Amino acid sequence: MRGMTGTLGPEELERYSRQIPVIGVEGQLRLKNSSILVAGAGGLGSIILYYLVAMGVGRIIVIDEGLVELSNLQRQILYTVDDIGKPKATVAYHKLKKLNPNVEITPVHARITEEIIDDYVKSVDVVVDAWTIGRPDLYWTRLAGGLENPWFTQGSANSTVR
Q1: N or C: which terminus of the chain has fewer CB atoms within 10 Å of its end residue's CB?
Q2: Closest CA relative to residue 130, chosen from 62, 70, 59, 74
Q3: pLDDT of 158 strictly over 60
Q4: SS3 for 124?
Q5: How far is 157 from 21, CA to CA, in rounded Å?
Q6: pLDDT-derived band of residue 115, with 50, 70 and 90 as boundaries?
Q7: Element (H, E) at 141
């Protein structure tokens, strides 16, 4: 988190009224002021993105090079038959903005490479590796070792090692 600022407006207080009793207003502000990079918008990524946006994370970058395919629809919850052939990152952006217009979402339709990740990773608080096919594990391990922020890969939490 780059520095907590702002307040919660009446719409946000109502929207998050079921989680504020658990995490408090301060916790909701922490979410609002946080930023997350999600690498991959497929089966795991689409679920993660949906819940991050629903809970009110302030800024999300989603990177995926894929196009929606018919074979994605049984496990990738953001997509429908109307989305087939469209870029996943772009479709995710439009669907997620309808879920919560308060969240700043940056869709990046690009192949996940070291250069692409390097361009974005230093501007976020948390990195989520939801890229499940052809994952460059050694790159993620090297990258996370140089970060001061936590990273998560395929559902298992990892913290940086200094």
Answers
A1: C
A2: 62
A3: no
A4: coil
A5: 25
A6: confident
A7: helix 137-145
Q: CA triplet 44, 47, 24: central angle to 5 degrees?
A: 125
- Alpha-carbon distance of 53 to 59, in angstroms, equals 9
| Per-residue pLDDT at 161 exceeds 60 | no
Mapping DSSP onto H, E and C, the string for 31-86 reads HHCCEEEEECCCHHHHHHHHHHHHHCCCEEEEECCCECCHHHCCCCCCCCHHHCCC
Rounded Cα distance between 19 and 130, Å, is: 25
How far is Cα 77 from Cα 130, in angstroms, rounded to an integer? 14
Please, what CATH class does the domain formed by 23-131+139-158 belong to?
Answer: alpha beta
**Higher-confidence residue: 93 or 149?**
93
The string of pLDDT tens digits covering residues 3-28 is: 557 899 999 999 999 999 999 999 99
Tokens of 108: 């990046």
Structure token pair of residue 20? 């504020």
Is 52 exposed, middle or buried, given 0-12, 13-18 or 19+ CB atoms closer than 10 A? Answer: buried
